[in-house]
Amino acid sequence: MKYKRILLKLSGEALMGSQNYGIDPVRLKEYAQEIKKVASQGVQIGIVIGGGNIFRGMQGASQGMDRVQGDYMGMLATVINGLAIQGALEAEGMQTRLQTAVDMIRIAEPYIKRKAIRHLEKGRIVIFSAGTGNPFFTTDTAATLRAIEIEADAILKGTRVDGIYTADPEKDPTAVKFQTITYDELYTRGLKIMDKTAYALSQDNKMPIVVFDMNKQGNLYEVCMGNPDVGTLVVEKK
What we know:
By secondary structure, this protein is an alpha/beta fold. It has helices at 25-39, 57-62, 67-91, 113-121, 139-149, 183-189, 196-204, 219-225; strands spanning 5-10, 44-49, 96-100, 109-110, 125-129, 154-159, 180-182, 209-213, 232-235.
């Protein structure tokens, strides 16, 4: 395996499957099976999931809600998704720990870096929820922060698109996929794969990012194997 310790970033919307909102049990099970396949090879896995399938803080703010209040609601949505993926992974026989950036002692451990790393070393999958615990920060930023803190080899950003393109491939059929791209190229081309804070953190700490299609069976395994044909690798320099 190319990567021994990864931070897998999933969007909340990915858990909807074919539904318009909420959590699709079929998609949840598929993800759990894909993660199990990688974990069985000894890869240490941390997971951050968004909450967009349940609630988005910025969307609430655009409708007149207080932004801070909305962001905290979004954090709670990520905890719900974290509990869901935890249950699905444990149903597949995996050992897990759910940690939250906002204390919820009855359902999860508080986030502690040393504890998280110890869990990973013991082969447990650690799910990081409630973002950074602060409003105005996205789950992309939370994923980057946690990846740096647990000293992951890379951030694997699972999406519904099989990499980074010159334009949105769902809208522009002439869009060309990048196999490798630098942070500077992303800025220059205005390609918004993650928010600027997450990019800056990743670039400053030389954290590689792989953007790939999580919905295609076997892709997560291939990325961890280092298959250059799956996804797009974001690096400091080519």
